[in-house]
Amino acid sequence: MKLRVATFNIENLSSRWKFAEVSRADVAAALSLAEFSQQKEREAAERSMALTVEDDKRQMTALAIAETRADIIALQEVDSLRVLEAFFANYVHRLSDIRYGHYKLISGNDRRGIDVAFAARRNLAPPDSVSAKSFREATFGDLGVYEHDLAEFGIKPTDRLFNRDCLTVTTPIGETSITLFICHLKSMSNGRGDGRHHTMALRRAEARGIRRIIEQEFGGGYRDANWIIAGDLNDYRLRLRPNGRAEDASPSGIDTFFDRFAFNPLETLPEHERWTHYHRAWSHEEERIVEEHVQLDYLLVSPALKERIRDVSVIRRGLPYRVPLDPRDPDRSIATLASKGDRYPRVGWDRPKASDHCPLVIEIDLAKR
């Protein structure tokens, strides 16, 4: 049977109007123009604005999910199972022809409380037949991935490995099944200009841990099993510069997945389409604005599924207008970018938007075991 599987970092789907004492970036600019006599007045205004902004954003997030037409979707940055179910009921199901269920979320290790999650088409599998297992308690030592370069972070072999989790979800489908290993690896941001390099050891350990889990799950038959590593891996192996110039970005924290293990379906697309995230920021090292299109979001399939891929697509209509949708286009002027169409209604220059990531979706002919 044909099965569509997607992954999407939906950027802080939260039941809280802000995290700790940090102001929300999407309302902070407007609040800076106002004056408040008391802190409680400011907080009330911020809460009201946050709810309004969230409604706009989540309509676009739901549109992006609806456009995937996914039977199974892995999600990142979800606050709780309750807010996940509320989002699908009140946003996704008002836009999509597909009705979802089988929701899975187990609270992980993220200090902000943003977790990885799972949803599947309601009639894809019988009720209560989808199983989920968390590896949030797994340590570096448990999975044999501790290296001495981790000591500079103050990490010990007995510490938990995953910054969030490796949520393992198995869905029975007819006479066979498919297992997703849903993850959201350590961010590249650490307040330093060399964030990617400085945090790479942490992602490398997490990636090796995920590979070890898969090898343990399926034993020597892992190559013949139906599995997908799904999620925001927060690293890349190819960087697209302006004019579409492709640069090798090795080494990467996720290289272990490509060492005769898994296959990246995005590699079947032309180079200029192999991206799910756009980054533009001032570089102190180069003393100029640096921009790049990269792949941070992955659906890495087992060798058994590699030859069964029938379609690969990236949904980009939820990105803000400031993002050049074609890395090859040399004109990055505001006038040109603002006049480009192919966005959802009410998407803004910087906000509102569906997310800062793109949904990635593949269609496969599911193999029988």
The average pLDDT value, as a whole number, equals: 93
- Helix content estimate: 10-25%
Shape: globular
Instruction: Provide the CATH topology.
Output: Deoxyribonuclease I, Chain A
**Any idea what the CATH architecture is?**
4-Layer Sandwich
End-to-end C-alpha gap: 13 Å
Within CATH, the superfamily carries the name: Endonuclease/exonuclease/phosphatase
Q: How would you characterize this protein structure?
A:
By secondary structure, the chain is an alpha+beta fold. The chain has one domain (2-365): Endonuclease/exonuclease/phosphatase (Deoxyribonuclease I, Chain A, 4-Layer Sandwich), CATH 3.60.10.10. It has 6 helices and 15 strands. It has helices at 25-31, 39-68, 81-95, 195-218, 303-306, 334-339; strands at residues 2-13, 72-78, 100-104, 115-121, 131-133, 166-173, 176-184, 227-232, 238-240, 246-248, 277-283, 288-294, 297-301, 309-314, 360-365. β9 and β10 (246-248) form a beta hairpin. α1 packs across α2 and α2 crosses α3. The two termini are 13 Å apart. The model has no long low-confidence stretch (mean pLDDT 93).
Outline:
This protein is of the alpha+beta class and 369 residues long. The chain contains six helices and 15 strands.
Question: Can you tag this structure with a few keywords?
Answer:
Deoxyribonuclease I, Chain A; six-stranded mixed beta sheet; five-stranded mixed beta sheet; 25% strand
What is the element layout, followed by pairings?
Blueprint: E1 2-13, H1 25-31, H2 39-68, E2 72-78, H3 81-95, E3 100-104, E4 115-121, E5 131-133, E6 166-173, E7 176-184, H4 195-218, E8 227-232, E9 238-240, E10 246-248, E11 277-283, E12 288-294, E13 297-301, H5 303-306, E14 309-314, H6 334-339, E15 360-365
Parallel strand pairs: 1-2, 7-8
Antiparallel strand pairs: 1-15, 2-4, 3-4, 5-6, 6-7, 8-13, 9-10, 9-12, 11-12, 14-15
Helix pairs in contact: 1-2, 2-3
